[in-house]
Each structure stands twice: as C-alpha cells, then as structure tokens.
Amino acid sequence: xxxxxxxxxxxxxxxxxxxxxxxxxxxxxxxxxxxxxxxxxxxxxxxxxxxxxxxxxxxxxxxxxxxxxxxxxxxxxxxxxxxxxxxxxxxxxxxxxxxxxxxxxxxxxxxxxxxxxxxxxxxxxxxxxxxxxxxxxxxxxxxxxxxxxxxxxxxxxxxxxxxxxxxxxxxxxxxxxxxxxxxxxxxxxxxxxxxxxxxxxxxxxxxxxxxxxxxxxxxxxxxxxxxxxxxxxxxxxxxxxxxxxxxxxxxxxxxxxxxxxxxxxxxxxxxxxxxxxxxxxxxxxxxxxxxxxxxxxxxxxxxxxxxxxxxxxxxxxxxxxxxxxxxxxxxxxxxxxxxxxxxxxxxxxxxxxxxxxxxxxxxxxxxxxxxxxxxxxxxxxxxxxxxxxxxxxxxxxxxxxxxxxxxxxxxxxxxxxxxxxxxxxxxxxxxxxxxxxxxxxxxxxxxxxxxxxxxxxxxxxxxxxxxxxxxxxxxxxxxxx
Length: 481
Known about the structure:
This protein has a five-stranded parallel beta sheet, with helices on both faces. 53% of the residues lie in helices and 6% in strands. It has helices spanning 2-34, 60-63, 74-82, 101-111, 150-161, 183-207, 236-252, 256-267, 273-285, 289-302, 311-323, 331-339, 357-371, 390-395, 400-412, 425-441, 449-479; strands spanning 52-58, 89-95, 118-122, 210-215, 328-330. It has 17 helices and five strands. The protein is mostly helical.
C-alpha cells in the first residue's frame, strides 16, 4: 500500500513538474516570438506631416525594384497623386528581399518615421525559407513525438536549427527528399506567423492605424522544389520508377496519354508534390481549370521546401482580417477577376511570386478602391478607372530599358533556384522562353542588349545540362521495363 502511495505521489509530482515546465515553455515561446513587439513602435515626430501617410511591410515583392525606387505602393501613390489630386503622399518602405513578417515588423518598430494612416502588409512567402537548410537532418523518429509537448518542441527545435550546411544547394542524387522539415517545425512556423500578425493588427487597432492585409499570391504553374513521399514504404522505389517513366513520356518522348496513365497509376497509392504538379499541368494544358487549380494548389501545399506561401498561411490571414475588421485583398482572387487567369501562372508572375508591372498596376488600383470607404486621413478618394499612361510609367522609372533589366535579373535567378532532384529543367525552360521575349522586346540599340544576350546564353546552357541530367536519372527506369 505504501509503495502504491509513493508511486502515485511520484507520478503526481512528475505530472506537476511537466505541467509547470509546459507553462514556462509557453511563456518563453510567447516572449521569444513577441517580446520586442509588445511596446509601441518608436514614432518620430514630423513637423509638417503629409496629409496621407502609408507604411509598407513585406519581402521582395513589396520592395519591388529598390534600385529604381519602385515598390508595391508606387502605383497607388501615383494614382492618388494624378487621379485623386492628393499631391503629398508619403510611403515608408519596411521591406526587403528574403524578409519574413518578423523582419519587416522589426524594421517598422525600430525605424518608423511617424504614425501612418494606413499600414499595408504583404508578407508570407519567406516564413519557411528563412530558417532551413535543404540538407538539415531531422530529429530521429523516436524523438519526434516529444514535440507534442512545448518543452519537447523547444528542445528539438534548438537542436535542429543549429545545423548548417555549406553545400546547401548541391544536388546529392535521388528524388524523394531524405531530410524533410519536421511537421512540428511547420506547425511552429505557422503558429509564430499567426502570433506576430495578430500582434501587428492589434497594435494598429490601438494606435488608430488602418491595416490593409494583402494575401500574397503565388504562381501555381511554378514547379515544386522538394517532393516528400506519402504512401506505403515498401512501394517507394516503385513510385520513383513509375514517375521517372511518366516524365520520359511527358517531356522527352512525348506521349501524353501514356504519361497521364502512369501518373494516375501513382495517384492510386501515393502522394507527393511533383505528382500533383504534373497531373495539374496536364489539366491546365487542356483548359480544365477547376481540376488544374485543385491539383496545383495541392502541389504547392505539399512542397517540402515551399517558395510560395502555403494555403494555411492565407487562411490564417483571412481569419485575422475578419477578426480585426481589416480590409483585405486576396491576390489570387484579384488575378482571376481582373486579369482573367483562372489559374495564376507565368502570365501574371515572373517566377514563383514576383509580379510584372501590369500586376502592380492592377493591385495599385484595387488598393485605392478598397481604401475609399475608409477615408484614410479623412480624405475622399475618387475612383481610378484609367490605366497609367506611358509617361506616368516613365516617371515611376519603368521604361522599356529598366523593365528589361528587372525581368532579366529575376529570370536569371532561376539558375540558382533551390533543388532537391534533377527536375530544374522545367523552370529553366520557362526562363529561357521568357528571356527570349525580353530580348526581342528590347530596342535594337538598347545598351542592355549584350547583357541580355549573355544571360540568355547562360540559361540555354543550363537548360541543356539539366535536361541531360534528368534523362540520365530516368534511363535506369526505362531499361527495367
């Protein structure tokens, strides 16, 4: 009897200790996530503040082309000045390439020049990318259940994030990624994103600032970076061989019915991002938009190293915007409605997430429209139906010359895009086609033409190399037939 009492007492003590540790871990996590954002930003006093003031938070899509002085709010600012007669409009930009929401918030908190009337938030693509090397080793399977506890998750996260790999972008053979980002890390990322966005919107409410939440759009035609196999383990090798054969008939010995049959065979027993991407693109090419979009969104959300914002982040933004009664623009819905792209693709994106000028213009007009009922700064904003004229684009530094330079820079970056397997040729094929179009549109005497031609040559060489490499990877599966 005494032994039972002692055991019960020991279990109760252990339970109390675990509960206390969980409370401490919760507090530590909250403080680490929000500690520096609990106080108000360090506003500076402006002697004669402009009648309409904006602040912009985000990553590279918000930053636009910093060397040209062009950002996501350049077009709405031009509309407000030229169509609405509000000459003095200021914009503080707290955005840069690769920044997650945390980085943009930190910049605003530390460097704010004054309280804005409107805070525009376009952030979400970089939440996963900023933390993880492609070659990180996940914690052993036996340890991962510990992540169900906050204390266990903190310990595993600390060990996991200490890793670094100088050969991060090196191809190491194989197809299905062997070092997936653990599920507990993905959950933690989304939870921290929600916490920070909630704190940001709550601060806007307290300070009398109107927040405008833009749900980032992503190119659904952009291929996944990493495929993580989900299916019977004993059929993993079979799945890889079937997919290799499907790629052969899809791209190298075109027989689309056979490729589709092989992909459907795979779909019957397993799931992975590249499988849904290839099925989605087959529907896309046939104009079957609903099924194409369903498959391509699944490919985006199952990507093991997402370079487009996953769907759950967009859902979190919608929910928080409703909770705080903040105006909200969904980029994917806007592209469908105003640019008639039932599947957001390379027609409205330069790569995975960056816009051409036409999309900045459509978004700029929508920003002004959405803000009208809220009368920012107490001002009445008229409608802005007219597009920007050529001379107005020139005042924004968007000439054919600068446009060619901007597009070629973005497209060339696809040469170094992250990869897990030898399927990079799909991105490079698009980049080559787009770069050819940019070169053809550049004036014959444009000084940038030699640089464009050199970049195009580099893309062609890279595409040939990647196609050969993929064919070599596929060859053993063809011999096994």
